[in-house]
Write a structure and sequence with these properties.
The protein is α+β, with helices and mostly antiparallel strands and 674 residues long. It folds into 6 domains: 47 residues, Helix Hairpins (Orthogonal Bundle), CATH 1.10.287; 244 residues, DNA ligase/mRNA capping enzyme (D-amino Acid Aminotransferase, Chain A, domain 1); 98 residues, OB fold (Dihydrolipoamide Acetyltransferase, E2P) (Beta Barrel); 71 residues, 5' to 3' exonuclease, C-terminal subdomain (DNA polymerase, domain 1); 71 residues, 5' to 3' exonuclease, C-terminal subdomain (DNA polymerase, domain 1); 70 residues, Rossmann fold (3-Layer(aba) Sandwich). Helices cover 35% and strands 19% of the residues. It has 24 helices and 21 strands. The longest helix is centred in the first third of the chain and has 17 residues. The termini are far apart.
């Protein structure tokens, strides 16, 4: 009964209460019980059926040939064991088509004499829903096929096909929503105060199952064809790869990443490669479908009651899980920005234990309508920070109140302010302890003044003890008192004292970064340091003069001018001057431009450089350091735990990937010839 309930939520109502991985786990548990206790299995068991019940919103369509499901595995060993069974039953070395498993909605498209006459969902495998009117609005699905070299009216393209022109063609494929379209749809839903979709698959299904086709037409849906279900009066094929080529020639969209490979080693390599590269695509995939390519071999292998034996779906590790939202709290950053975050019952997502997740800002909390006590979907994709995608509304306890963004800072109690036209809310109390700890910690970070041994916990200890009230206090620390604190041995105090003294010579750009001026980052700080050459000149410049520096602009210019106009900030600057902190700049003005004009991407954690320092060093030598890999990228510098999408893109484009040692040699000598 539990699986039947979730089948209805998923297949009929498009409002699931479990993620795909959790549903698969539930069905897998039932299958194991039935294998161990055959007398408990029945013909009506969900393990022997495809899909769920058919919605009554649309007319039923009986499939001429059942739309079967696929056997699934999450283990490479099981995948290879399946392949070895195929090879024992077939040729010594079989050819396989490896296809991306699109996370969408299965469709059957029936063409008669080249014209689309019927479109149906998979439904329960035998009977689907007639969604012809809605599918007709999807521009990615052709209303007519290009057959026999014919040219359609108003289109100069011609396509040839193998053999005769078929009178009847059934095409099977996956309807999906691109990620960019999904994000845009949720943005519009949020602005309209409507429910947001949790993931692109549900957005695609919900967009298709609309009573009004005009709603479907307003959604940017796409389609990949992956199989022929029927072909009457047309060409004959001996291989699945030939059918894919024929569908492509007929004007259907066939995924460009499908590969025909021979042997299980290449199947394994394909699966592993796309598991790493899954986030380089503009659509979501949750695995790879592997099919025996030879159609005669397929016929010999046959099917079970629910799935063909000649195909298997390898499912990637899940990146979404459900868990309970315990609370929504607000953190205060160094600029006073108030950011809501979710406190979760711990759950393993994407291979990591997640107990906290971002909620971005006040508007996102409202748009997603998440509430403490909700069961929520949590997503962690690769190296992306975990986020709450949305609640499972059907599981919401009755009477659960909406969460309201606080009007006062949770740390200092002062008012929180949101300016007109901005999505962020700020604590405007410069003396807020949370801001103070964050600002001083940032000032001491490697990307700023690089004061080793002065991390967040130490800063918090010193603030509580009254030793630090602003960043200038660092240079007047009472080290004798520090030595009296528990855990501070004499050598630790000396090390901190040395680090503080050394930091006084840091370049002007690093000092600017450390001041936590809103909107001003490492790049802008470098540009201002090079243009003005001294902190006093920057402080004396007008907003217009600052904005005129190429790469700075009005927003940063106004923010910098505003910072130096405040008396309290000028007092801090004077105290830094009195302490002997370097105001002259920039130390790298004479660095040879050995990387001029190159685009070099940094990903992962370097042991001797912060990301900001590495990017600043590249920019000082004339390079650009964008956040993404493109065909213009000259090199990728990879540290520990690099972004898998960036590495995959670099591999795909043939871009060289180097480590930290090679990076430092690069800074000294420039790009090597080979």
């Amino acid at each position: 009964m539990l699986i039947e309930h979730h089948n209805e939520r998923y297949f009929v109502l498009d409002d699931p209460e479990l993620t795909d991985a959790e549903y698969d786990e539930l069905v897998g548990k039932l299958a194991r019980i039935e294998r161990e206790n055959p007398d408990l299995a029945s013909d009506s068991s969900p393990t022997g059926r495809v899909g769920g019940e058919v919605s009554t919103v649309f007319a039923p369509v009986r499939h001429a040939t059942p739309m079967m499901s696929l056997d699934k595995t999450t283990s490479y060993d099981e995948l290879l064991a399946w392949g070895r069974r195929m090879e024992r039953l077939g040729a010594a070395t079989l050819a396989y088509t490896c296809e991306l498993k699109i996370d969408g909605l299965a469709l059957s498209l029936l063409y008669e004499d080249g014209r689309l006459v019927k479109a149906a969902t998979r439904g329960d495998g035998d009977t689907g829903e007639d969604v012809t009117a809605n599918v007709a609005t999807v521009s990615a699905i052709p209303a007519e096929l290009f057959l026999g070299g014919s040219t359609q009216a108003g289109d100069s393209r011609t396509h040839s096909s193998k053999g005769a022109v078929p009178s009847r063609v059934e095409v099977r494929g996956e309807l999906y929503m691109p990620i960019a379209a999904f994000d845009e749809l949720n943005r519009r839903q949020g602005e309209a105060g409507a429910r947001q979709f949790i993931n692109p698959r549900n957005a695609a299904a919900g967009s298709l199952r609309q009573k009004d086709p005009a709603v479907t037409a307003g959604r940017d849906l796409a389609f990949w064809a992956y199989q022929l279900g029927a072909l009457d009066g047309g060409p004959s094929f001996t291989r699945h790869s030939e059918t894919l080529a024929w569908m492509r020639s007929a004007g259907l969209s066939v995924n460009p990443h499908i590969e025909l490979v021979e042997g299980l080693d290449l199947v394994d390599a394909y699966c592993r490669s796309w598991q790493e590269r899954r986030h380089t695509l503009d659509y979501e995939i949750d695995g790879v479908v592997v099919k025996v390519d030879d159609l005669a071999e397929r016929s010999e292998l046959g099917s079970t009651s629910r799935a063909p034996r000649w195909a298997i779906a390898y499912k990637f590790p899940p990146e979404e899980k459900t868990t309970r939202l315990v609370d929504i709290m607000v953190s205060i950053g160094r600029t006073g920005k108030a950011t809501p975050f979710a406190v979760l019952e711990p759950v393993i997502v994407g291979g990591a234990r997640v107990s906290l997740a971002t909620l971005h800002n006040q508007d996102q909390v409202r748009a997603k309508d998440v509430r403490p006590g909700d069961t929520v979907v949590v997503r962690r994709a690769g190296d992306v920070i975990p986020e709450v995608r949305g609640p499972l509304s059907a599981l919401r306890p009755e009477g659960l109140p909406e969460w309201s963004f606080p009007t006062r800072c949770p740390v200092c109690g002062e008012s929180l302010v949101r300016s007109d036209g901005e999505s962020d809310t700020f604590c405007v109390n410069e003396s807020c302890p949370a801001q103070l700890v964050a600002r001083i910690t940032h000032f001491a970070s490697r990307g700023a003044m690089d004061i080793e041994h002065l991390g967040e916990s130490t800063v918090r200890q010193f603030v509580r003890a009254g030793l630090l009230g602003d960043v200038a206090d660092i240079y007047g620390l009472d080290f004798e008192r520090v030595a009296s604190f528990e855990g501070w041995a004499a050598i630790s105090v000396v090390n901190l004292q040395t680090a503080v003294e050394t930091s006084k010579a840091r370049p002007l750009a690093n000092l600017l970064v450390g001041l936590s001026i809103r909107h001003l980052g490492a790049t802008g700080s470098q540009l201002l340091a090079r243009r003005f050459g001294h902190l006093d000149a920057i402080a004396a410049a007008s907003a217009e003069e600052l904005a005129s520096v190429e790469g700075v602009g009005q927003v940063i210019g106004a923010s910098v001018a505003g910072y130096f106009s405040l008396p309290a900030n000028r007092v801090v600057i004077d105290r830094l001057r009195d302490a002997g902190v370097n105001f002259a700049g920039p130390a790298d003005v004479l660095v040879p431009q050995v990387l001029a004009g190159l685009s070099i991407v940094v990903t992962g954690t370097l042991s001797r450089w912060t990301r900001e320092e590495a990017e600043a060093a590249l920019e000082a030598r004339g390079a650009r350091s964008p956040g993404s890999v493109t065909k213009r990228t000259a090199l990728v510098v990879a540290g520990r735990d690099p972004g898998s999408a960036k590495l995959a893109k670099a591999t795909e484009l043939g871009v060289r990937i180097v480590d930290e040692d090679a990076f430092e040699e690069l800074l000294e000598r420039g790009l090597p010839d080979t």
